[in-house]
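Title: Comparing notes on inverse folding

I've been comparing how different people in this forum approach sequence design from structure. To keep things fair, I'm posting one structure and asking everyone to reply with a full sequence. Here's the target:
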């Protein structure tokens, strides 16, 4: 078996898959009926609709003819298909990173807004290099030096999204535990807190902290990221990192659930100014 990995899905490939699922549903056809009418293999059709395979142009044309789409829509979807393999940015060494992480990098690169809740970690987009290295070493104790440095480099490069034009809009909410845990020691945590205060001065970055005194809250079940994209036609995405594996969620019900959860966390967290005060106090406490 070949060990060459497939390219991770792109936003455009997900958009194409979602539209093909919608068109088939609107035509009241099952995958079996589409396969019988077109001769397209059922497994191939399933993979296309799950964004696991990029359809060939002739396959896409056949499907669109069956679904009776307009000429304007046909041209639009063919344009999406032609660019569906384009990765936002993937450095050569990224091929050695876990496939789920490279997929996440691709989606994050193309996102317009990232809403990130973290219960235990400082969000990757606002980590210092020292904090990132300490976290990765702690979470992946068996990783080699090369693997650790690749992940640190990828994390630092990702932060360029906050200063590009137009910049990524980041709204981060963290539990107070993320700034109280001494990752790498007091000196490193002072640097991390000061870095967060500096980064959040930018108009495209908002940070809120949920203080311990708030008690139990909806985010205690775990961290997550919700992304949306510049083109409204591109489906929103939720990413959840779990011990059992990384999950990419895109069903409407899941998107609504996590959006609602993020709104509840916004309400329970301190406002940005009070959150900055808490960060400043945390810094002073370690001086």
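Reply #1:
Here's my take.
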């Amino acid at each position: 078996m070949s060990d060459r990995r497939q390219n991770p899905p792109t936003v455009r490939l997900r958009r194409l898959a979602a539209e093909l699922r919608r068109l088939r549903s609107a035509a009241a056809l099952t995958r079996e009926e589409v396969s019988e009418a077109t001769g397209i293999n059922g497994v191939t059709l399933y993979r296309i609709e799950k964004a696991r395979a990029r359809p060939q142009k002739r396959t896409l044309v056949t499907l669109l003819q069956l679904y009776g789409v307009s000429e304007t829509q046909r041209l639009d979807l063919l344009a999406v298909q032609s660019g569906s393999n384009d990765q936002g940015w993937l450095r050569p060494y990224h091929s050695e990173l876990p496939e789920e992480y490279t997929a996440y990098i691709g989606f994050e690169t193309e996102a317009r807004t990232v809403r990130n809740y973290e219960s235990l970690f400082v969000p990757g987009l606002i980590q210092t290099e020292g904090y990132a290295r300490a976290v990765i070493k702690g979470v992946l104790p068996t990783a080699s030096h090369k693997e650790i440095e690749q992940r640190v480099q990828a994390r630092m490069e990702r932060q360029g999204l906050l200063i590009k034009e137009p910049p990524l809009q980041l709204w981060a909410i963290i539990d107070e535990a993320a700034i109280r845990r001494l990752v790498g020691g007091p000196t490193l945590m002072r640097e991390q807190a000061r870095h967060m205060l500096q980064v959040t001065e930018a108009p495209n970055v908002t940070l809120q902290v949920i203080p311990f005194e708030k008690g139990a809250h909806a985010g205690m079940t775990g961290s997550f990221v919700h992304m949306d994209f510049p083109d409204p036609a591109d489906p929103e995405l939720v990413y959840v990192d779990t011990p059992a594996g990384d999950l990419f969620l895109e069903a409407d019900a899941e998107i609504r659930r996590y959006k609602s959860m993020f709104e509840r966390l916004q309400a329970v967290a301190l406002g940005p100014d009070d959150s900055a005060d808490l960060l400043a106090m945390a810094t002073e406490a370690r001086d």
